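User: For documentation purposes, I need each entry recorded in a consistent format: the amino acid sequence on its own, followed directly by the corresponding structure tokens. There are two entries in this batch. Please keep commentary to a minimum and don't merge the entries.

Assistant: Recorded as requested. Entry 1:
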Amino acid sequence: MRLQTFLITLSIILVGCLTSTTAAAQDGSEHRYEFQCQGLETPGNEKVFCELLMGFDPHMRISYDRELAHLRVLAYLPLDVNEVLALAEQVGVTLVPRRTPILRADLSNE
């Protein structure tokens, strides 16, 4: 009986933790970032860098326009821009933050 009570309590705690983590990641707040980008010349480089960025927020949306060298990020968790810049530097990508607001429609096509 004690084991059964323990397992039920443990299950409730785990479900609560998982639910709160998902809710925190998708609480509806959006954080938009835009960067001028150099160093993503090939689709392979772009893919690797985008996968590294997803480590900050696995639910983020990333859009890269190779012609304009613009990287747009829509994150659901706030990002530390200095950490993003440091990560980019480690893999040979140069990012310059831009202050231009991004429209939600810019990321909906991808």
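Entry 2:
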Amino acid sequence: MHSPSLATEVELGGAFIDLHDGTPQRERPAMGFGVTSVRGTPGYPITARLKVGYDLATTMLGELKRGWDGGEAGVRFEQLVDAEGGIFRDPNLTRRVALGSRARGRAPGS
């Protein structure tokens, strides 16, 4: 953590790639970097997060959330390597975009 409102993360490692399709198995470096920032007030926080990684393909996560006394709302984007089960075992690049909201309940008597 760099400050109360900013944090970063770095990941280093390796990836073993075996697609089971006749191509040679490979090993390659894997890495990731992320940054999270929280602004606003404790009752009304604004959180922004970005994470980028690379192993078999580039993975990404971007998220922006806004909180308030009664809940929060946000938007999120993800790109990741995924493999579906069943007869389809080939990896694919999945992209998702989501909008969400969450209401917080209040304690009785408050």
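Summary note for entry 2:
The mean pLDDT is 85.
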